[in-house]
Amino acid sequence: MSVGDTKRSGAGAPEADAVVTYEVDDGVAWLTIDRPEARNALSKDVRDGLWEGTRRFVSDESAAVLVLTGAGEKAFCAGGDLKEMAETALEVPPPDFLPQFGRNIDVRKPTIAAVNGVAYAGGFLLAQQCDLVVAAEHARFAVSEVKVGRGSPWAAPLSWLVPPRVALEILLTGDPLDAARAREVGLVNHVVPAADLHARTQELARTIAGNAPLSVAAGKKTAYLSASHSLAEAYEKAEEIWAPVYRSADAQEGPAAFRDRRSPIWTGR
């Protein structure tokens, strides 16, 4: 088993050999690549652990938001394990090589990347696929495949996330962006001192987790509509997405709580 359980609620200690850990803290699941001695590279054990952890989050009713991060201070994830690739003579990675949220696994709840160091190649992929990104000041981002003759088909959404000319520079040079530049071009939401990364990310996740769950899920789906639909189609799809939310008990609970000057009690129904 690749995923160690470190729930703060009192569950068992993480396995000594776990390279990916899963921890739920106040409704926020932290999925951590714990292989700092190899800059959290994506070995098979790590990839298996990410699959297991992602599936666990999808079905975990105690977790409203997922935070993906890496152990240590140097690397979020430096990408694929090149030694392993050389040994296995890997050519085209299979579709299930690692979880890609929204592509090969449906993750309806929000996800945040807490980038604690370099996010290169496959590490860039992991950060890119999350809904939000919080980065430490020393973090670096790069699609470095052109430096080693590998491919990055997973970067197809990049020109939707950042301006096309920025995407082209990232893909054609392979040169890294520092955290400040990544925030400037829209790849990152917040840049914080490394010592504050966990707390700031937890705060952001808790803000999201405290909102009406049906509205949060619909908001996430709505934000991605323009990536694959015309504006007119996006409006039409959005109406379909939000209609059940308007008709929900939570939609009545919100105004009632405001009227009664109390905190709403969300049921997700």
UniProtKB/TrEMBL annotation:
Known catalytic reactions: a 4-saturated-(3S)-3-hydroxyacyl-CoA = a (3E)-enoyl-CoA + H2O; a (3S)-3-hydroxyacyl-CoA = a (2E)-enoyl-CoA + H2O
Alphabetical list of InterPro entries matching this protein: ClpP/crotonase-like_dom_sf, Enoyl-CoA_hydra/iso, Enoyl-CoA_hydra_C
SUPFAM superfamilies: ClpP/crotonase (SSF52096)
Gene3D superfamilies: 2-enoyl-CoA Hydratase, Chain A, domain 1, Lyase 2-enoyl-coa Hydratase, Chain A, domain 2
Name of one Pfam family that matches: ECH_1
Keywords: Lyase
Sequence similarity: Belongs to the enoyl-CoA hydratase/isomerase family.
Annotated protein name in UniProt: Enoyl-CoA hydratase/isomerase family protein
